[in-house]
């Protein structure tokens, strides 16, 4: 009898000498989200490979404090990649060398960020309009570091210039070890539905020998399995669906293995992970800044809780850890599983 896992067999995936197992799940680099505290709770809940927030090459060269702090990585996060972005070849080369000194497992180049203050400065997704320059930047970085170099990008700049097939072949030829593709163009930003068709075509291209990871709109175990079956990608990178929901990694893994669903996180689970996230945040940043930066996460951890506003106001106004803990304990005590209904 063929088991569910055998039916959807996943081959071993490696990036350079990094063994990621079968069909790895990657945490996407997200500005103001995927910092060490958030990565810690994602790692505890099944993320196979994680990335730092994307880091400005110019900021690293200027020794800007915010950029340098983003280089902080910890052994329990491994394998971990540092992601950099920029539009100047020499600056990118220098920032790659600086990043490699932080001893990540790999270095990722962002050719996909669509936001105006990045793309309009010739970085991120803007390089999709200048493939020779993208190739030149990548080649310099590959030559300058002794760790695997990977790339994250999009289908193209707009619907008339979906050049990802050319990008994939040319970047592989100069030595990148894996490619992650977000199934939208830059013009789309994050609107509309991600199109994975070209991602699948690239994976099926006999010239492509490096791992191909898909990204875009995967927010459930069913969607993850659908993408794997339809497009035969090597793994999935998950971004927005992880915010307030680090459990998604283990939920997908369990579903891919058994065809069954893990029980949704209980109120107690949510409170426990929220406290862990807060503790990591204070340890990494310091007490006050850690509390301030945690405020953006509370609503996501308790999304869908009815009449939650009074609790949220307490959480986002207090600077006292013990008071925040008491508020979280009140949430755990006052929200029964029955009250939450289909949420849990």
Short description:
With 344 residues, the protein is an alpha/beta fold. It is 44% helix and 14% strand. The longest helix is centred in the last third of the chain and has 19 residues, at 267-285.
Protein described:
It is a single chain. The protein is of the alpha/beta class and 344 residues long. The protein has 2 domains: 4-258, Aldolase class I (TIM Barrel), CATH 3.20.20.70; 267-343. It has helices at residues 4-7, 36-44, 57-61, 65-69, 89-100, 116-119, 131-144, 164-173, 197-204, 221-231, 248-258, 267-285, 287-294, 298-301, 309-317, 321-334, 337-340; strands at 12-15, 18-22, 25-27, 49-51, 55-56, 80-85, 106-111, 149-154, 178-182, 212-215, 235-238. An 8-stranded parallel barrel has the order 3-4-6-7-8-9-10-11, surrounded by 6 helices. A two-stranded antiparallel ribbon has the order 1-2. Strand 9 (178-182), helix 9 and strand 10 (212-215) form a beta-alpha-beta unit. The longest helix is centred in the last third of the chain and has 19 residues, at 267-285. It starts with a helix and ends with a helix.
């Amino acid at each position: 009898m063929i088991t569910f896992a055998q039916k959807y067999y996943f081959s071993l995936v490696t990036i350079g000498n990094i063994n990621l197992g079968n069909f790895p799940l990657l945490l996407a680099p997200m500005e103001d989200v995927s910092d060490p505290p958030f990565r810690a709770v994602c790692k505890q809940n099944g993320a196979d490979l994680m990335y730092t927030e994307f880091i400005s090459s110019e900021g690293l060269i200027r020794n800007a404090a915010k950029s340098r702090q983003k280089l902080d990585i910890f052994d329990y996060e491994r394998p971990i990649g540092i992601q950099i972005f920029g539009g100047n070849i020499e600056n990118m080369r220098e920032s790659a060398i600086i990043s490699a000194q932080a001893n990540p497992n790999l270095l990722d180049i962002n050719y996909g960020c669509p936001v105006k203050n990045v793309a309009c400065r010739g970085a991120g997704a803007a390089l999709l309009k200048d493939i020779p320059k993208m190739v030149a930047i990548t080649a310099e970085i590959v030559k300058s570091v002794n760790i695997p170099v990977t790339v994250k990008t999009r289908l193209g700049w707009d619907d008339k210039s979906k050049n990802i097939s050319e990008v994939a072949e040319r970047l592989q030829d100069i030595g990148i070890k894996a490619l992650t593709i977000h199934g939208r163009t830059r013009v789309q930003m994050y609107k509309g539905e991600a199109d994975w068709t070209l991602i699948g075509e690239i994976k099926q291209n006999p010239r492509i020998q490096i791992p191909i990871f898909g990204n875009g709109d995967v927010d459930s175990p069913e969607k993850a399995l659908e993408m794997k079956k339809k497009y035969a990608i090597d793994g999935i990178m998950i971004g927005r669906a992880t915010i307030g929901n680090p459990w998604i990694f283990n939920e997908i893994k369990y579903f891919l293995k058994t065809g069954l669903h893990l029980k949704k996180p209980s109120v107690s689970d949510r409170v426990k992970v929220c406290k862990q996230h807060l503790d990591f945040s204070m340890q990494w940043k310091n007490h006050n800044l850690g509390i301030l930066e945690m405020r953006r996460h509370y609503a996501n951890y308790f999304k869908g809780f009815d009449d939650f506003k009074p609790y949220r106001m307490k959480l986002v106004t207090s600077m006292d850890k013990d008071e925040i803990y008491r508020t979280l304990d009140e949430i755990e005590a006052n929200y029964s599983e029955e009250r939450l209904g289909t949420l849990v």
